[in-house]
Protein 1
Amino acid sequence: MKRLQAFIQRNKKEGKGFIAGVMATVLVVTMIGPAGAALTSKMIEVYTGMHIYVDNQELKAKDNTGRPLEPILYEGTTYVPLRAISEFLGKAVDYDGTTQTVYIGQTAAKKQYMLDVCKPYQTTYYQEINELPDSRMMAGNAYTRGFILGVKNHGNGSALWNLNGQYSTFSFDFGHIDGALAGDSKCNFEVYLDGKLAYTIEGTPEMLPQHYDLDLRGALQMKVQATPAYGDFYFFANAELK
C-alpha cells in the first residue's frame, strides 16, 4: 500500500504534464456517509485515461464481469478501484452492506442477525424491521434489523423461535420508539426459555435505548411475549443470535 501511495504522490507532483494526458469526464458518484447513514449522490468532474503501475507491473483493473475499470483523478487525488488494487497487493476485500463498511485484509466477525439465521415459527402481532431505510427512531437515532411485538384487541404480541440449542446469546438494543404515545405506555416483555420465564425487560416511555445480552446456552426454544399495555411502542433492534 505504501508503494501505491508513493506512486500517487509522484503523479501529483508532475502537475500539468500529468493531467494533460487524461480526459475530463462528468460522473454521478455515490458517497458513503457514516456507518448506518443513508447514501447520497452528487455530480463531479474527474479525469480519466491514467495508467497505474506497481513495481513496474501495470494494474489492469476489471470488475467481476471482466469489464475494465479506470482510475480517476479528482481535485488532485487519484482514486483507483478498491478491490482491484487490494487484491493486486495480496489483500482480500469484503463489504458489509448493513453497516456500509469495507474490510481490507482481515475481516471483522460477521454478525448473525436473527432475521437472517433464525426466524420465528409462530407469531402474534409481530412485525419485522429489516435493513435501512426500513428503521425506527429511538432517542433521535435510527435503528433497524429487529422486531416489534404489538398488543391489540386485548391480545398480547408474541414470537416463538426454535433455537435447537445452537446459540449462546440473544443480543439486542431495546428502547421506546420516538413519537409513540407517552403517558402510561409502559410495557414488560417476558423471555421464556424452554417454557420457563428467564428474563423480564421493562419498557418505559422516558427510557434511552439499552443493550442486552441474554444467556441462551442449552435452550431449545425461546418465546418473547409483550404484556399490557403498549408493546408496539418498543423495538428490539440489532437483534443477533450468537
Note: Confidence is low (pLDDT under 50) at residues 1-21.
Protein 2
Amino acid sequence: MHKKLTNQLIGVTSGRNFRELGGYETLSGKKIKYHKLLRTGNLADLSPFDLEFLKDYGVKYDVDFRSKEEAEKQPDRVPEGAKYYFDPVFSEDLTNSSKSINDLETEAEKDPNFGFDHMLFAYEDMIRSESAQKAYRKFFDYLLANKKDGDTLIFHCTAGKDRTGFGALLVLSALGVPLKTIKEDYLLTNITTKDFIDNMVQRLKDNNMSENVIQSLRDVQSVHAEYINHAIKILNDDYGSINNYLRDVMKLSSADIMELRRIYLEN
C-alpha cells in the first residue's frame, strides 16, 4: 500500500508534501484524472526548476488556505500562468504548523499532550467555524471553475496536512472516493515528510529539549489517524454525514456534485 500511495508524489524537490490526487478510484470504479488536482505544502521555497516543472505540469490555480500572517511571512512563488487565490481557513494558524518552537515550548513543557489535544481542537474549528466554512465553500467555487482538461489546481496550507487534509477529505468525498482511500491519502503525509520530522526531532534533542516539547512538536508537525477520525465523527454527529455537510454547509447541489465529477473523473 505504501509503495503505491508514495507514487502520488510528483517530484517537487524544494517543497514539502507535493502530491497528486489523480489515480484514486471512486466507489463507482472511475478514477480521478491526473494533472487536475494537487495537494501540497506552501510554495514559498520553490526553486526555479520546480516553478518551471509546475508550469509544465499545467498548474493554473493556486489556492492558499493560510492566514494573512503566514502568507505575508512566506509568500507563494506562483508558477507562470497560474492565478493565486488567497482563501484563509483561519484568521490565524490554529494548527500551529507555522509556529516556532519557542511559541509552543511553554505550553508543551507543562503538558505532553498539548500538541495532540490542540490539533483535535483545530479540526473542530475547521468544521464548525464560519471563516473555515466560507473558505472551503470558496474552494469548491475554484474547483468548479477548473473545467479545462490538463489545467491543474493546487490547494495548500503551510505543511499541507491539516487545512489541506480536511480540504482533501471534502473534495474526495464529493467525488465519491471511499473513506478508506481518503484516510490512506491523509496518513501518507507521515511517509512523505518522515525525513523532515526526523530532522526536526534530532535538532530538538541536540538542543536538549524536553520529551514533553518533542512529543508536542511531533504531534503538531505530523498527522494521526485520530485527527481525521475525530473530524469524521463530528461531521457524522453534528451534521448527519459528510454528504450532508457537503449539501447543507458547503451548499453543493446535486448538479454541482455531478459537475465536479465530470471535471475531475475519467470517463
Note: Residues 130-145 form the longest helix (16 residues).
Protein 3
Amino acid sequence: MRADRVLSLLLLLQARGRMSAADLADRLEVSRRTVYRDVDALSAAGVPVAAEPGPNGGIYLLEGWRTDLTGLTEPEVEALFTSAAGPAFESAMGKLAAALPRESASRAGRIRERLLVDSEAWGRRGSAPAHLRVVQDAVFSDRRLRLRYRRAEAEVVDRTVDPLGLVLKAGTWYLLGLVGGEERVFRLSRIESAEALDEPARRPPKFDLAGAWGQRAARWDSGRAGYRAQVRPRAEALPLLLRVAGDRVVGREGPLVSLDFPAREAAAAFLASFGAQLEVVEPVELRADLARLGHDLAGLYS
C-alpha cells in the first residue's frame, strides 16, 4: 500500500464526497482492483471508509471523520510539499493539490511556485544546510536576503538577493535569485550567513522556476555554460583526465586538452583535484585561482 497514493485517495474522498471506484482509479492512475485493495487496507487499519456496490453506490468516508481530515494547517501543507523527493512524490503532490480545500490549495500552489525537487542524479547527496530555514522563509514570504557567500575558491562575498525559488538537486540545495537584476544560483552549503531583510523581493511576474532551472541545468549538462579552460596534463594523467572529465572534453590539440565548465569556480575546483598532474594553460585568471589555492594549501599543511 503506497502512502502517497492512499493519502491522495483520502483527500479526494474528503473533497468530493462519494466517488465510484472507476473515478478514483482514473484520478489515481491505478486499477479498480488496486483501489478496492487500498480501501480494504484502510478499513482494516481503522479508517472509517465504506464501499457500496451498485449504480448508486460508491466509496465514501463516514460522517464525523471527514472533518478531521479537512483540518490541514498551513505548516502541514508546507511539510507535505517539502519533505520528500522523486517523480512519484511530485505526481502525488499534483493529486494532493487538486484535492485540497481552496485555502490550503492556494498555499500549496504558492509553495510549488517557489520550490522545485529535481530528482535526477547529479552527484552525492548532502545534509540539510545550516541556513536552509532562513532562506526558505525568505523565499516563501517574498523578502530580500542578505548573504555572505563562499565561492568555490574560498573567496567570501556579500550579496543582496531577490530570491526566486529553491531547488533540491540530488540532495543538494540551491537558491535561484536575482542580484542586480541578473539571475544567479547559490549553493546553500556555501552560505556563511543569511539574513532576511524587511524589504519586499522583486519577483518577475509569472516567473517559471522549473523552466528557469531547466534551461540552466541544460547548459551545465551540455557544457555550454561559457567557461572554457585549456590544460596540459602529464602523459600518465591523460587517461584519468579523459575518463573523469567525460563530455567536458571539447577538444584536443597535441598535448593540450580543452574542457568546458559551467563556471570559473567549477573549473578551479575540478582541476585542483589533479594537483601537479596537469597545468592550466589558459585562461590566465584560472591559473591565478589555482596558484592561490596552492598557496593556501601549502600554508595550511607546511
Note: The chain has three domains: 1-70, 132-222, 227-301.
